[in-house]
Amino acid sequence: MNDRYLRTGVFLAPFHALGENPTLALDRDMDLLVHLDRLNYHEAWIGEHHSGGFEIIACPEMFIAAAARETRHIRLGTGVVSLPYHHPFTLASRMVQLDHMTRGRAMFGVGPGSLIYDAEKIGLKAADQRRRMDEALDCIIPLMRGEMVTRKTDWFTLQDAKLQLRPYSHPHMEMAVASSRSPVGAVASGKHGIGMLSIGGTSDEALAAHASNWGVHEKAARDAGKTADRSRWRIVTFAHVAETREKARADMAYGLADFNRYFNEVATFPIVPPNVEDPLNHLIDTGLACIGTPDDCIRHFERLWKGSNGGCGAILLLAHNWADWEATKRSYELMARYVHPHFQHASNSLREWSYGDANTKRATAGMENQAAIQAAIDKYQTGKRG
Which of 210, 267, 278, 373 could form a disulfide with 263 if both were Cys (CB 3.0 to 4.6 A apart)? Predict the structure, then answer.
């Protein structure tokens, strides 16, 4: 039996085209989490953004608190909170409250902040963001453990600071650091013995970078006396499936152009280079996305697993809104029904064995059953005549 178990989830920025009603767009984001919860997805990570007009959730903690009331099982993480934007004491305090309110379903994803317009608006220089993330994380971890922290930097002060609540989760809520191409996130996550969220694409080149960063994570963990755990490594990718490849490709006419435009005109890390004439084929050909059938998606996930050089704990789908709402829901359902079982302890293996076992015995068991039925009929008829 295949003992591999790969958790599934989404990374919800979210992305919403400018012409759409933002109130209804946020409602649909909530509906998506309810839909995923019903389909047994394991986790959803919700982003923090304040600029650009496209990624419109500003406070993932607030969204998670609301989502926890609408869902039953799915775990809900900040994906991610930009640490340089927040005082570490008040942020840690809010997250512990969220840990209690969700009864341990909340996760704490952190990063330096990827949208430069957010940092610019609060007078934060890009050169300081990663340093400030490290400084904040160095305080948040001991605060989460119930320790007292005193520290002064050029942007925050902690004086005999100790949280008033212990976390609901023990020893504290699950945490992860975003990691793109640079090793900063890998070093930070390894140093503190927490998870890693690999973002930045799944082309062959990107997968090699993610695997290299996991090696950095493992070394940083060893150096700090921590144990690296691949089950806490998540890789983010793109996928959309339908009953046929033709249908999946046709679905892209709804939102791929808007998404691509945003990343070329506003975001500073284009997903598809601006000189590419056919974004759809580029996404498929480079391995950045799976746009096809469930079988295509199985092969895509297998490729990610192999590219990780030893496996990871979860694959997260970037919620892209390339397709309309009905096709989007259908895509997630098809993956839950036909892709996920392949990666979760081969969850249909016992059913397949039982089916095959019954099939091999059908001829003899069937004859015996028919004989028993006929004997019962004959006995009844004999008694009736007597």
Answer: 267
